[in-house]
Amino acid sequence: MKKISIKGPIVSNDSARLYRYFGWDAASPAMLAEGLEAANGEDVIIEINSPGGICIYGYEMYTAIMNYEGKVTVHVITAMSAATLLVCAADEALISDTGIFMIHNTRSYAEGDYRDMQMEADALREFNAGIINAYVRKTKKSREEIQALMDKNSYMSPQTAIEHGFVDGYIFGDPNVTEGGHKVEPTSIVATGIPIIPEDKAKNLMQLIINADKSSTVETGTMLLNGQKNSALAVSDKMEEGGKDSMTLSEFLEKNPEVQAEIDAIKAESRAEGQKEERTRIQSLDAIAGTVASDMLHDAKYGENPIDGPALAYRAMVNGDKMAAAYMTQAKADSDESGVGDVGIGIPDAGQEQTDESDEMSSYINRKKGGN
Questions:
Q1: What span, in angstroms and rounded, lies between the C-alpha atoms of 32 and 197?
Q2: Are residue 23 and residue 108 in the same domain, yes or no?
Q3: Is 364 inside a domain boundary?
Q4: Which has the closest alpha carbon to 80: 168, 169, 156, 184?
């Protein structure tokens, strides 16, 4: 069975060339279309590990999968934002034991007066309507239920995604069931978003590279990218064979500082976005700090598998039920061992059989007071 890999952000066909130029993962409508065309109507598996991306290209990929004649099975490693549309278009969706599925409202940036802001808000609601169509078709949930999940930026563990109907099952079988039938509670996980290069920046950077690439071709012949002949750009096909010198990527960037400057700006923007996401994660944990154990909070913040506030709240709830059950079991054992259940039963200190606890207690108090 043919496998198609969807890895990295979902971007336009032009921007995908830029990502490949630098050896970065990216997915585009053209790449998916090529894979489906090569499959020629046979059953295919689409493996998805994507943080999402630009929704209109997700729409195009959703439609391509829906139109495909053969059976499409998706294997979800990570599917977030626009990538979830591809999951919902498939005939069958299976998820890895360690998978994550996330949906949210469409987002954009706008500027202008109050009318521009209102028009942008209206547009986003219309974009949401299309996404909700796909989610409703897959899950059979109401539009109101789907909108509520999108409003919360819902991160879903494999079990949660299955329970909501976005995913049909596990790739390797349900890991929560042992031979004895005992279910293990799921562990929530947080996926860190990968910054996506804005389309305008991608096009500007691409043009800078093409211009610099053409110049380098004239002066130095064939340019090498990571030690290999660069075939990512159309201009590379026009490079002279057997040029005088070769140029590595670092040498190319050193020779073309304007390209390096643009890359540095994008990296700085990505770091700023990552820092913002981390602050948001820590703030969500601080918001519930008074309701969870300090060791759990510390592990959520700085442990090997950091999670956010909602995930920690769920984990604390699950562990709280377990701790309550353990406490009751231990309390009963302590009670049985102490003999507290025998108080007021058996031989009173007067040497007679006790028939009423209140009578015994009254006699004890009277004796202490000096009465009969």
A1: 20
A2: yes
A3: no
A4: 156
Percent composition of the chain: helix, strand, coil (DSSP 3-state, to 5): 55, 15, 30
Can you point out the beta strands (E) in the chain? 2-7, 44-50, 72-80, 92-103, 154-156, 169-170, 224-225, 228-229
C-beta of residue 282 within 8 angstroms of C-beta of residue 221: no
pLDDT > 50? residue 80: yes
* Residues 80 and 126 occupy one common structural domain: yes
What was the pLDDT predicted at 66?
98
Per-residue pLDDT tens over the stretch 316-372:
655 665 555 555 566 556 656 655 444 333 333 334 444 455 555 556 556 655 555
- Closest by CA to 166, choosing from 193, 192, 131, is 131
Write the pLDDT tens digit of every residue in 191-200.
444 456 666 6
Domain boundary (286, 317, 349) is at 286
User: How many other CB atoms are there within 10 angstroms of residue 175's CB atom?
Assistant: 14
Q: At what angle do helices 13-21 and 29-39 cross, to 10 degrees?
A: 90
Q: What confidence score (pLDDT) does residue 189 get?
A: 37
Residues 21 and 137 in one domain: yes
Number of domains, the chain: 2
182 DSSP 8-state letter: P
Q: How far apart are CA 53 and CA 28, in angstroms?
A: 10
In a domain, 73, yes or no: yes
Residue range 207-224: mean pLDDT, rounded? 51
Return all residues near 294 (Cβ < 8 A) that are at least 6 apart.
Answer: none
Average confidence score pLDDT of the chain: 76
Domain boundary, last residue among 286, 305, 336: 286
What's the domain range around 69?
2-170
